[in-house]
Amino acid sequence: MVKVRAPRSLPSSNDGSPLHHARNGPEAGAPVRVPKRRPSARPEAGEPLSYRARLLGLLGLIALVHAPLLRYGLIYDDGWTLRSNGFLRRGQFELGVLLSPEAAARHIPDATRPTLVAFDALSLRVLGLEPWAHHGLSIALHLGVCGLLARLLRALGVAEGPRLASVACFGLLAIHAEAIAVVSFREDLLAAALGLAAMIVAVRAIEAARLGAALAWGGAALGLEALACGAKLSAAPLPAILLALAWLRPGQGCARLARDRGRLALVVGLLGVGVALALAQTWIVHGGSPYGGDNPRILAHRIGLGPVLAASTKIHVGYLQQILIPLGLSPEYVDRGAGWLEPETVLASATLVGLVLAAIAVRRRAPLASFAVLAWLLACVPTSNLVGLPNMRADRFMYLPSVPLCVALAIALLALGRRLADYLPKPAESELAGPDLSAGLPLAVFVLMQGSFGLAEARVYVSNTTLWHEAARRAPESARAHALLGLERVGEVRRGDQLAPKVEAAAEDACRRAQRLDPVYELPQLCLGSLAIVRKDWVAAYEHHARAVELSVDRNDRPIAALAQLSLDLPSEWFDAHPELGDRRSLSIAWLERGLSAYPYSPELHAAAGRVYHRLGQPERALELYRRARSLRPDRWETVAAGVELALDLGDAAAAHRTWWSEAKVLGRADPATRSRLSRRLAVARTDPHFSLLHSLLDPGVFPYEP
Q1: Average of per-residue pLDDT across 286-297
Q2: What's the confidence (pLDDT) of residue 440?
Q3: Is the pTM here over 0.85, yes or no?
Q4: DSSP, residue by residue, 293-329
Q5: 170 CB contacts (<8 Å, ≥6 apart)?
Q6: Contact 190, 141 (CB under 8 A)
Q7: Cα 513 from Cα 641, distance rounded (Å)
Q8: Is 137 exposed, middle or buried (0-12, 13-18, 19+ CB in 10 A)?
């Protein structure tokens, strides 16, 4: 059995100094300047590739592994944060609003992450809503993080081989599949990219020759750290990690960080100011936790913080196992508490405490192993459930914390390979013999395993149907998984699936199961309410949606839109039983006023309000709301179809036809029933003797202004 010691420190690279000492001659020992050899653009046969070429080749391999994501759709929270987020649209985005309490009052998605919101607004204007383009952007962000990791390791004096090995481990780590595959989770990628850039600039600031240059670099590090934490607070522990680098000194480059303690303190303080600015923005917007102090979705608010922290010890030991051996990855985990005296909790707590004590004990003999453990624990603090989170566990939480572990793993695997190479037969020496690759065998096996598991795991996120089927299978006790699976099946029934009775029964089973698993969760109520709409049971639909609004603390625009429309369909007997609610009209308008004031950027709510006022006989107000809905989400075919119907009802055949022709691409996504109904009505309108084709072509249409 071969014993392999943990690497003592980061392997240091040759600094490339042109100064060498002469061995002979009268001035033996005097420095002699040897001119550097300029690398050729094209290496000769047998000459190794340059470091840059090898890094680009490695990044190309990582991109190739993730290329299948380009065929995936927009899923999960992509609709809430990107597709239906009207605040991102041209003419709606206001940085001042985003940095004020109005952001929370107007329910802007991800209001406490201004960097992410600004990035999404820019990407939406450049890329539109093409899923392949946004997945390509996520892959590009991941490659950027890999490149920045290589640059940071170079700044810390790590040799080329371990540098590339670390990038390979991180770039193909299987636990990153969720963060890269889901567009709305690119907050982790963005925070990591900006955070690593802040670390690189911070190192430059510490090593700067002059104080003025140090202050300039430090100010840039402050800004990058503030932007990183503005994308996600997972970057908040980076100042503490920089201190750990200077304390443990796992490499010669790291030793330079501690030479000037005053400079180090200054730079760490500036990074801390960046973190404080991001926390201040969160406090200004929400006045506390961004998830609400009474949010029932946070388990700690139901059972207390103690059981949640006890369960968190097992969660973090599970993260370690998933990073080393990628088994048990899942798109969904069930939140549950634990007792501190349970055997599993005791074992997990002992494991974490043992890792900390061992890291401190071996900090001089194996500083790299010590740094990897302590830096990982520090990076896990923002998602360690010390502050209540809607999800106690998620694979994406390990994106940035996995960086120090990947560096240590890569160097350990290279060391193992060198040991194994000593026991393997050497190839016969020959001019044609290539380099001995046996030293990289353990690393290659690890990277191949991680890449294969990551590629398989990413297939879960190809569509919402696939996602929630798999989530319900892997986490059968998750109310969210079953509720969203039920909503997906309700959508299949609405689309007129041939197996509608069976699908409807399966949808009801999923909704009921979700309700049994969590009676005070809004999603099962929305699931049952949507099913009742399909069955035209207006009373049940109204009651389930009203219960969902009562239970939820945010994202209520769609249930409020449903309630406003359902109010017009409730029977008179129901109003007789609830005289305090008035009549249909007043109840519907009350819901609309509540919704439009709280969710001014919701396209679905504005479109629903247009339909309500259309039914109430107020076409001018309906047209105004349709146009507002169209500006908030131009790709939504339901709004365009409603505008065409309104024009036909008003007798404006010219506007209806112009919109039908000019918006053919958008209306091409409409369901067949809607297209057939509009086509028949337009055909009837063309039989009118007053209809003029030329007039229709010159008419501005229902939506005269480009959204």
Answers
A1: 75
A2: 85
A3: yes
A4: TT-TTSHHHHH-HHHHHHHHHHHHHHHHHHHHS--S-
A5: 145, 146, 149, 176, 402, 403, 406
A6: yes
A7: 36
A8: middle
Measured in degrees and rounded to the nearest 5, phi and psi for residue 19 equal -90, 125
Q: Which two tokens stand for residue 655?
A: 């506007």
Cβ 654 vs Cβ 687: under 8 Å: no
**Tokens 């503030």, residue?**
226
> Distance between CA atoms of 235 and 535, rounded to whole angstroms?
48
Q: Are 268 and 260 in contact (CB under 8 A)?
A: no
- Region at 110 (left for phi over 0; alpha for psi -120 to 50; beta for the rest): left
Identify residue 199 by its one-letter amino acid code. Answer: M
For residue 246, give Cα distances in angstroms to 111, 189, 367, 408: 35, 26, 11, 17
CA-based nearest residue to 383, from 451, 322, 306, 315:
315
Neighbours of 328 (CB within 10 A): 12
Compute CA 426 distance to the chain's CA centroid, rounded to the nearest angstrom: 47
Contact 138, 186 (CB under 8 A): yes
Here the tokens at position 661 are 């022709």
| pLDDT value, residue 320 | 96
Q: State yes or no: pLDDT of 49 exceeds 60.
A: yes
Cα–Cα distances (Å) from 464 to 110, 188, 292, 488, in that order, read 21, 21, 27, 8
The residues, any chain, with a CB within 8 Å of residue 244's CB and separated by 6 or more, are 371, 374, 375, 378
Q: Cβ of 525: how many Cβ atoms within 10 Å?
A: 26
Cα Rg of the chain, angstroms:
30
Helix axes 464-474, 479-494, angle to 10 degrees: 140
Q: Report the pLDDT value the prediction gives residue 436, as an integer from 0 to 100.
A: 55
Compute the distance between CA of residue 348 and CA of residue 317 in angstroms, rounded to an integer.
6
Cβ contact 519:296 at 8 Å: no
Average model confidence (pLDDT) for the chain? 89
704's CB contacts (< 8 A; 6+ apart) are none
Two structure tokens written together for 340: 């501190």
Place of tokens 């960046």: 274
**Which of the 8 DSSP states describes residue 401?**
T
- Which of 498, 552, 554 lies closest to 524 in space, CA to CA? 552
Provide the 8-state DSSP code for 77: T
| Residue 486 vs residue 18, higher pLDDT | 486
Give pLDDT, residue 318: 96
Instruction: Output the CA–CA distances (angstroms, integers) from residue 558 to 146, 163, 379, 602, 703, in the order listed.
Output: 39, 49, 36, 8, 23
Q: Which of 533, 539, 544, 705 shows the shortest CA–CA distance to 632?
A: 705
What is residue 370's DSSP assignment? H
Q: Quote the CA–CA distance of 499 and 480 in Å, as a whole number.
A: 25
Q: Where are the alpha helices (DSSP H) in 459-534?
A: 464-474, 479-494, 500-517, 522-534
Strands (DSSP E) along 252-350, which ranges?
Answer: none
Q: How confident is the model at residue 14 (pLDDT cuts 50, 70, 90)?
A: very low
Mean pLDDT of 201-216: 92
Number of other residues whose CB lies within 10 A of the CB of residue 627: 19
Tokens matching residue 591: 């819901």
The answer to which of 4-8, 92-96, 157-161 has the lowest mean pLDDT is 4-8
Domain ranges of the chain: 51-287+396-421
- The residues, any chain, with a CB within 8 Å of residue 29's CB and separated by 6 or more, are 21, 22
Torsion of CA 13, 16, 21, 23, to 10 degrees: 70
Length of the chain equals: 707
What's the one-letter identity of residue 147? G
